[in-house]
Amino acid sequence: MVSRVVFGRGSFNQLDEILAPMRKGRNAPFIFYVDDVFKGNHWLTSRITLSYKDKIVYVPTKEEPKTSQIDQYVEDIILAHSELPSGIIGIGGGIVMDIAKAVSLMLTNKGESKDYQGWDLIKNPAIYHVGIPTISGTGAEVSRTTILTGPERKLGINSDYTPFDQVILDPELTKDVPKDQWFYTGMDCFVHCVESLNGTYLNAFSQSYGEKAFELCQDIFLGDNLSEKDSQDKLMMASWHGGMSIAYSQVGVAHALSYGLGYLLGVKHGIGNCIVFDHLEEFYPEGVVMFKKMKAKHNIELPQGICADLDEQQLNVMIDVALSLEPLWENAIGKNWKNKITREKLMTLYKLM
Ligand code: NAD
Ligand code: ZN
Known about the structure:
Blueprint: E1 4-7, H1 15-19, E2 30-35, H2 42-45, E3 55-59, H3 67-80, E4 87-92, H4 94-106, E5 118-119, E6 129-133, E7 147-149, E8 154-158, E9 166-169, H5 179-197, H6 204-222, H7 228-247, H8 253-265, H9 269-277, H10 285-297, H11 312-324, H12 326-333, H13 337-340, H14 343-352
Parallel strand pairs: 1-9, 2-3, 2-4, 4-6, 5-8, 6-9
Antiparallel strand pairs: 7-8
Zinc ion binds next to helix 5 and helix 9.
Protein name: Iron-containing alcohol dehydrogenase
Keywords: Oxidoreductase
GO molecular function: alcohol dehydrogenase (NAD+) activity; metal ion binding
């Protein structure tokens, strides 16, 4: 679990105060990975104080993080500094959260990040790392994984050293998120809840967080009387609870298929989950009805026919990626999932998208 967290509008102002005691010396900088949407945004960047060799690295977020990109960031740090950093701080969405976590792990674990994709392969504790989300829904601020696309697979580095040492939850930072993106990333949280609450891995720990997040999502996306501020505050907590819920269970069918779309077509996580979830009545009947209501209420038009022009070989690549995520299927369907989930079944589903 994340060991320290502050919550509140304006809590981002405490950043300096939080970091100061963690500084290891003049040659051990704080490295800030900041979503490049904030480049030139004085309101946000003026609150990041740089001392000694501290540095801001603006991260492009058109594409999801790759293992090669993490290795490059790590090499850049090692070449530029005589000592390991005092800390790594990520300020942005799920992409930046994952980059901050992965870089902090790879600074203390030898070799290439692709070799750590999987479960509990990390040997050494990470560098002190801080997550500051600026968009809510993924739960990446609280989870024990960092999802990376490598040469062979899209898979997280899951480990006890992955979670942040400190998180700053300041809902005000989400005020300028574009509406479509707000919906896609918010629906990631909704889908986490549905997959967790309807999974065979469910337990009282996951359920208690999942139910709370689910309730918050209903308020936010179907309620009528919420102010913008309340909606931002609640979505930030929904994201947290949704992330906590899957931390002790697993995601399911939507994520498995969405990873396939992400791997082959570069479709991003939030929108990919929405595209997939729209066609999963068979697996999550009530969740899908609710999702369609939310989509209609917020006038969201999802892309259609994205798999229409794919050939057999391409469809098979996506199917391979999806089927390789065994724990997701086992959670969704049960131990005998292979009887129900065949290549033909997935082919049919992908062709609907
Ligand atoms: P994102 O990081 O892709 O960001 C989406 C867009 O929102 C970007 O264009 C970004 O610039 C913009 N944005 C972010 N904050 C903004 C703000 N305050 N104002 C204006 N624009 C803003 O989106 P995401 O949905 O948060 O993250 C998706 C990523 O998270 C994927 O890479 C996915 O694999 C990963 N993920 C990780 C976990 C985990 O547990 N580690 C869980 C789910 C998803
Ligand atoms: Zn997700």
